[in-house]
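the two lines:
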Amino acid sequence: MTTVADNTLQEFLDALAAGQSTPGGGGAAALTGSQAAALLSMVLNFTVGRRKYAAVEDEMRGYLARCEELRAELLALVDQDAAAFGAVSACYTMPKKTDAEKSARTAALQTAMKGAAEVPFIVAGKCLELLQLAAPVGAQGNRNVVSDAATSAYLARAGLDSGLLNVEINLKYIKDSAFVAEWTDKVANLRAAAADAYTAATAACSATLGVTV
Amino acid sequence: MTTVADNTLQEFLDALAAGQSTPGGGGAAALTGSQAAALLSMVLNFTVGRRKYAAVEDEMRGYLARCEELRAELLALVDQDAAAFGAVSACYTMPKKTDAEKSARTAALQTAMKGAAEVPFIVAGKCLELLQLAAPVGAQGNRNVVSDAATSAYLARAGLDSGLLNVEINLKYIKDSAFVAEWTDKVANLRAAAADAYTAATAACSATLGVTV
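prediction for all of em together
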């Protein structure tokens, strides 16, 4: 299967810049989240197995395993975002001459748009989890590389904000008002949790680094 | 010449996550900035040559040319960040038995650390320029893809914050107080300009999208 993971950075950036819909902001958000995961993994890889951090070894090993899962999942979400967008695009090619065709096309489009709203929400949720991990890693990880945990928090916040914006943009086109109400709440709840997690992450990194993050 | 641009996304992320110093937060910041540039280029590629946006064609063509330069420069800065870090690491291998050796080592280390502070500042400056471009692109670019200009602003802010944090971390180890004072001012000025540019960029995108960015 073709996957964006096999693209070179140059190829991916060229495709991102081109006048084509995918990869777009959703894919860039997922890749940025994957980088945020990788940076936390880096801090953890400089922490586990070191005598100085033996007291937190088990906890840090657990975080590392989860960061590595999130890194892979977020990278896979670059492809999933493009697939969800492709499903929306495919609907636009459906016939719309008869009333039956029009209503089938509208129904298919609405279903595809719900799918396109879901993917960036998943991206945002995984970025939230990274922000939540950045606090204990920033507080207890190898202090020589804690600036990388802070950078992780900056990138995770950007991935999260981008994901939630893409959800909100998609919701504008969805006619199912119960779905829209439910997802508007989900976005608001995730945003509130993210604000708390970001504050905790930057406070932990600031305390370790002696620099305001 | 080996360049990170030829790495696959998988290879780059694996290297970022590994227990090695480069690529680290500085490289991730530069790549994120390059993605921010690519996303503005995408919006501009959906704008130039379209009858609907003919009135702003010349202006948008100019922005596109600049975004493409910034995209290439920020990608090259991933390698430059690793090289600057490598120069610092090399100093740690210098001998330090005699007083002469110690003072040569300290002098070399201080010079290398100034270089390592400069690269993330350049990254941050280019991210500032992208934030400044996001306002006119968000206001006048193809409105169907303006959410990508907003995502660009989120990513550029993350690249900028990461770059400036890395400058500040490096400054803590530099003994030349005149240099530190000068660069502390430069960081503060860039941060203030970035806050203004971010506010303008998100306001412009919000107005076009009808969603708070």
